[in-house]
Fold each of these.
Amino acid sequence: MTAETVRSMTGDSLAEDMQTLGRQARSAAQALTISSEAQRNQALREAASALRRNSEDILAANRQDMDQARARGTAKAFLDRLELSEARIETMASGLENIAALPDPLGRTLAAWEQPSGLRIERRSVPLGVIGIIYESRPNVTADAGGLCLKSGNAAILRGGSESHHSSGAILDCLQAGLKAAELPDSALQRPATPDREAVGHLLRLNTYIDLIVPRGGRGLIERVSEESRIPVLAHLEGVNHCYLHTAADPAKSTPLVVNAKMRRTGICGAAETLLVDRQVAQTLLPPLLSELRAAGCELRGDEEVQALDSAVIPADEADWATEYLDAILSVRLVDGLEEALAHIARYGSGHTECIVTEEAEAADTFLARVDAAIVMQNTSTQFADGGEFGMGAEIGIATGKLHARGPVGADQLTSYKYLVRSAGATRP
Amino acid sequence: MTAETVRSMTGDSLAEDMQTLGRQARSAAQALTISSEAQRNQALREAASALRRNSEDILAANRQDMDQARARGTAKAFLDRLELSEARIETMASGLENIAALPDPLGRTLAAWEQPSGLRIERRSVPLGVIGIIYESRPNVTADAGGLCLKSGNAAILRGGSESHHSSGAILDCLQAGLKAAELPDSALQRPATPDREAVGHLLRLNTYIDLIVPRGGRGLIERVSEESRIPVLAHLEGVNHCYLHTAADPAKSTPLVVNAKMRRTGICGAAETLLVDRQVAQTLLPPLLSELRAAGCELRGDEEVQALDSAVIPADEADWATEYLDAILSVRLVDGLEEALAHIARYGSGHTECIVTEEAEAADTFLARVDAAIVMQNTSTQFADGGEFGMGAEIGIATGKLHARGPVGADQLTSYKYLVRSAGATRP
């Protein structure tokens, strides 16, 4: 048997395995449609208990992944995301309990009305069906995303990064234990049997069985998924987020707000990456703000005018304006009024979160109306771009597209609806 | 120059033209974002006037299309859809006026709340951006779909069937006259310059400029678009719709309801295609119903039991259960109770509109909850599956997917939303 034949047989058997996963998920989704809220919440709480009960097994599985990753010489940031601890397991467990405590997103009457024809019409929330989640080697996403799918009555196929295969498997075992305890099919939450990277390609073509793909990760992953998928994708793109200090910005608010937006946590998608400052107020606002940022450990890159105001600012080049640093770096540019700020954001923004700092209601209204982003803010730190901070409970991420859901994606956003129509035998004239 | 070179040059220039269309549409969409409700409604009303004023030019353009189509020996049903008349032009014009009279789908506060952190959050409806509409040679869709896109503040690229090129162009001229009269960019509604079929392929790859593709037409068109598109698709699939006569069906309602559901108009996607009858009530309900259907001109195809009840019933084969006849044909099958009806619908239904005829509330609730379709009905003719009948005004069609919008797609469904967040300088702890 040639190597080629072996490879192609492996490919076939993987394709078959993925078909089976899809079929099982579809059938589990049907069971979830008729499950009760109590059952779904019980499954979530039982899964939380199982995570705590099996924490040693989970940590042992994680050590296997960590050893293999270290042996491959993986970068430290990668290892940080991969590593589990008792504390991280507890965060996953309490996360699932928090999801269980959220209001039921299903069976809600979203609207109800009567027509002159005698039709009584109700729009009612229902699950989407089967969701494919594709994410990097962050094993905790298995619990977070799996929990949200279950809460919203969806079956899920969870495909985490290959390097987290053992850890994710141990966590998935706990989720499935929760499902069984609540008498729900454990195929409601599944994953490919092997860490084979080709599984992703197969998953993206299972359009007979999967209703939605949610990729969660860096730009490369999202782009690959959007390009290859035959299934609708709810993309969570990067956040090239701006703070714009308008002429009517309150100096007392500007500095703490921008420092918080940039520096509170630099690695999250809601962090600010570019500061735009109205030329009229630059000389007043910018020097104290830049020195506070630098004191907080932030590298500053700016255009020539900004450099003239502060000689320690490094020159920014064209690429800087389009970069999501996810790091303690801020690009700074002066603009001539609101229109120029809007034009800069339209050109370089990623449609995630944009903020104007101003005390002038009219300028704020214009900014909020005209900036095309999921979240537009006045006098508010962009770091608030988060489902929890919006009061929506847990979230899978911030969707930057405009279809289906935009902004934080929690359990509510993972639902669809149907129309229920009743009458006393109405026929259409 | 070889034929090959000429072809490839044409292809390049078409690709370039489509890029230009996309760029112009994107820029028009930005202008629409800041347009007022009054402007958009004025454009719709002026377009209606232009249609009436230019009806002779439109009819002349339509005669060109009709002559060419006849010369190619096109089928009568196709010609019927292609042909315009004074009455059809008036229907388009008053359709646009009706859309103008609908409530504004934009700038609506969908939800508003305050967080303990001091954030005041509002979810507000906004346009999607640029919509690509792909449809067959029905020139009236140019006005209907264009009008809905404009109402909802979206730019649109309208690509109708090649055979309707002259008619659609004459109608688009009127829409653009309306835009100009309202001081809106006429590139808000555009179409490819030539009837070249390859334009569709290019359109489906313009993901930089187009946010949503709405295909409107038969199965072949929808499947091609779903397969090829690099842009999210809001698909309107066929309606393999069922009426299920439950044991507790009211005989006085059953016959008029099923006759209406099948025969009122057989060519619309809300028409019933299959009748399921509970075995327990078949002998009572079916004979009078079948003879009324036959009297109304309906061909009947059934399983052996149905044939035994009525010797004029033709045998149905497996393909019948999955067929959208769009014609005066009904397939009929007996089932053993609600579960078997649900299983049949899960297997053969297309997720469009499904109806149970019963006086028993529990059976109805089970049916409405468990059938996975955009519209589920009790004691109501499936022919009511229509945006107008739902009180939503005009519609592009009935979406059968679960993402973004499900069921009738009108102006409201062609919107997205954004979050507006205000605070007094809140920073995240």
Amino acid sequence: MINVGIIGGAGYTAGELLRILIWHPEVKIAFVQSTSHAGQPIANVHKDLLGDTDLIFAKADYTLVDLIFICSGHGKTKAFLEQNELPENLKIIDLSTDYRPKNNDKGFIYGLPELNKVSIAKADKIANPGCFASCIELGILPLAASEKLQEEIHVNAITGSTGAGQNPTTTSHFSWKNNNVAVYKAFTHQHLAEITESILQLQPEYEKAINFIPVRGNFSRGIMATIYTECNMTLEEAKELYQNYYSEHSFVSISDSIPDVKQVVNTNKCVLYLEKHGNKLMIISVIDNLLKGASGQAVQNMNVMFGLNEKEGLGLKPIGF
Amino acid sequence: MINVGIIGGAGYTAGELLRILIWHPEVKIAFVQSTSHAGQPIANVHKDLLGDTDLIFAKADYTLVDLIFICSGHGKTKAFLEQNELPENLKIIDLSTDYRPKNNDKGFIYGLPELNKVSIAKADKIANPGCFASCIELGILPLAASEKLQEEIHVNAITGSTGAGQNPTTTSHFSWKNNNVAVYKAFTHQHLAEITESILQLQPEYEKAINFIPVRGNFSRGIMATIYTECNMTLEEAKELYQNYYSEHSFVSISDSIPDVKQVVNTNKCVLYLEKHGNKLMIISVIDNLLKGASGQAVQNMNVMFGLNEKEGLGLKPIGF
Amino acid sequence: MINVGIIGGAGYTAGELLRILIWHPEVKIAFVQSTSHAGQPIANVHKDLLGDTDLIFAKADYTLVDLIFICSGHGKTKAFLEQNELPENLKIIDLSTDYRPKNNDKGFIYGLPELNKVSIAKADKIANPGCFASCIELGILPLAASEKLQEEIHVNAITGSTGAGQNPTTTSHFSWKNNNVAVYKAFTHQHLAEITESILQLQPEYEKAINFIPVRGNFSRGIMATIYTECNMTLEEAKELYQNYYSEHSFVSISDSIPDVKQVVNTNKCVLYLEKHGNKLMIISVIDNLLKGASGQAVQNMNVMFGLNEKEGLGLKPIGF
Amino acid sequence: MINVGIIGGAGYTAGELLRILIWHPEVKIAFVQSTSHAGQPIANVHKDLLGDTDLIFAKADYTLVDLIFICSGHGKTKAFLEQNELPENLKIIDLSTDYRPKNNDKGFIYGLPELNKVSIAKADKIANPGCFASCIELGILPLAASEKLQEEIHVNAITGSTGAGQNPTTTSHFSWKNNNVAVYKAFTHQHLAEITESILQLQPEYEKAINFIPVRGNFSRGIMATIYTECNMTLEEAKELYQNYYSEHSFVSISDSIPDVKQVVNTNKCVLYLEKHGNKLMIISVIDNLLKGASGQAVQNMNVMFGLNEKEGLGLKPIGF
């Protein structure tokens, strides 16, 4: 059994981790830390866990655990690591952006198993990728791996509301968001940095622009990215390239029909779909932003780090509707 | 032309008033007061008015207007009236709960035209009814008017998110509310007071319970109330009673088929529908909470107060979908 | 291992069964029968199963299985049993209404484990309850079991769209249903029959009306029933009664805070909540209509029939959002 | 007064026309033709019109009208014109695709007032533009008019469900569409033809690709198009170009903040917004697909054809929420 602790247990990604981990056959949850809710049952905050667990938010005790998941939010992991003395052999999976850049000073490995599975298996510290980044990278990496990227890449990706976290704001207000969509951070989204790093890891000389327009969607979970670029392969060649690239990766499927977001909601899967139009190859990529885009991927990384089958505990019932 | 001012111009009900009044043929908007947004174009806040108006949030100047709409929020009108010296002949329509009780000390008339049209026509001060109250009273008043209420009344009513105002909270958060419903304030909702007063105005000896369960719906606009009580009339008699009661009221229709909420969204209408099952008469009542339940009714009251056709400026295109 | 077959594999309840059974540790799916889709991969129809299974829709072969689930739709099971000769020892769980009445001529047991667990454990043929019926009965049965029902029961229940099946109709059209609610079959819904039978099984002399208003909600999954009736217990006594009644039942929890539908979506759970107002006891009951209201309960019944823990394979990750 | 008739009165675009025309001060609706619903009140079909009109679906009588709107659906107008002998001076506005190509054999003028207002004013027959086409063309035409298009254009546009009409299908089913998005007809959508023709009318030598990815959105009304292309103007120059191009057009506004779809829902407006990133100019364009994308634009065309102010009858209350 892997003994795990969760830091920052009251937020969305921690809740999603708990929904997975309480059923994971190889995991024991030793503590769920929360400053704001210490002493309360976790089912008071993550109400859908009522009846599933009697866990209480508690203080962290690093002597009890093999691994901690840090769910404190972007910018807070650095401070956490400075302020806390952690056991040397304690493994860490951080869900924030803080240590995603390759040249980080703590030796964190970028935790996209479909890119870095070998390094992850040997790593002690994992920086879990961003949700948009996961969805988009999975759609592009096979091209980069065979150095097929030549021209600019065009990406439009629409995300569910949970991607923005649980803080209530003007744009998370139901009255605004219901039946509504809007663009934000066009061409400047912070995930462009990690997407670019991952592409360059595989095709270092690629230097064209990645044009990325993120959209706020009026649904709770999921991301659909639509990607296209010029490509001199036929559709069949491209499909074969993608099939080969993902042949050893359990969570990525190539679909023969156009996917929709709900096809992957409440699963750790990524579904890809390809079309060729003239000289453009279009790739559609869909994931659940809280699973393959966050907590599901964190568990997948844990599985890889501890030598388990990467699917362990991740055979999740899809929502379907 | 009626010169009007709006106090508290940045909230939901004020926005809705503006959407109506800028097209009202007999109204000139003299000022839209907002403490928080003074000096800004109103289209910066009510963004759907871009291109329709160049109005700027400004200070109130009561010498310019015949009528003010007070949209400051519940509990704030009393303070406003204490702190401001208003011209004697200035008419007021208040959208808060503050002066809805009959025995209020300022002479406000409860502004449900289908109950009090004659008094409203002579009034200077109107307390605009609550949204749930409007929907439910319109479903019950014909029975009370002919003293047909005998036993308890059972009401379940589901409301759109705009009924809770624009303040972002846990239960207005899209991630929570999307695809979700929940009960709140069962048997204790504050609108029960005005509903009871209106019933007793017509059938003073009625003393049975009104069991009211309010539900938060996952839509933006609209209320559907389902009401039933024992009744010794046939369905035909009941329909005739309702038809007669509303024969002089432009905004209430009796439907022969089951209504849905969207049938009235973006209109000032109330659609009623009746069924008889055993000794129970069931009435379904649907309105748009921001229109017949708030700002549309406020304009209807203004029309009645100033001797206009009550429909003036309220020939609104329904949303349909 | 239990070898199971599914009859009518292309519909909603069959899809939901498959989403559960492919991960159930004690089940082998021997065939998934579909007349309309024979020969196709089931992931072509239930697209969210892409990557999870390579099963193909096939003909039924009753010699391969211990149990069949019949998902053909209401009214079709009778015909199916007449037209097919089944092995004597083949167990059946039927998800239609056909054999829910107690006095059915084939010996089907009404499969609500919280009412009939002992009989289910010995049964060969189970009639799986209706979705509304499950939700409402779980809210009322503890009162009936202690003969506390005295007066009429008032029920309003709102259901997700999947309750109406996959046939595209006017009222399943997104343009109509989105942001909309409407009543249907008020006081006459077909589930009243089984609700009444279950209550009478526990409190045979109860003879008051059950007033039931069903509502079409604008969400995909879930039912929320709001129930009240006169009751001479205190709130504490009522809570204790409910806690005791469900103490041996894994899927029902009594909540201390108002539940919402999403709290149980994608789980087999039922969450109950009680309030007392004057002499009225109000019970809120929420379930996922496709799980505790259909396919999840079918699996729970299978577990009970085969002597497994009733939770086996039903430790499902909630959707949360 | 303009006497108008509607052909094909039971569909979405006809319903939307009726919602506008019954309040239009210069219009008398002489007949609303429907083969399927002849003899029924139109409020039986377009239920939100209950209480607003007593019109009955009837046979067409062309001697009564100055203008007909043809709302029969794509491909049916050609057959209609062959099978019916119409008075010579009868004006026609056709909402189908049939006569949108410039070189049509009946002299239909493409009815985008912001492109062809002078020709429309003199025309007898108008082909009303497509919804996507209207939204996208309004975002691009100022560039084409000053011959600023140089490189490929990249367009992603998401549409509400009403764009697909009222026929119930798999992808219009609420259970599928709710909380879901999906791409369709990428790079091949039929509106590309009219978009290209309109661009070439203004910048005839432009010959680069227009890459267009349409997306089915999970909302009822509205289209948001995100468009970008290389452009050597500064943002300020581009804004000025757009302001100038639309200075005489009442329904198009240039916004200083990022627009969302609901900003224009239930109006005939188009809101545009510009950003510059490197050498890319991004334009966001939002309209209501049933209004500026269909029936609202048809009324605008009627106004122009009959010498009225183009805004007459189109001062519509926005939905806001």
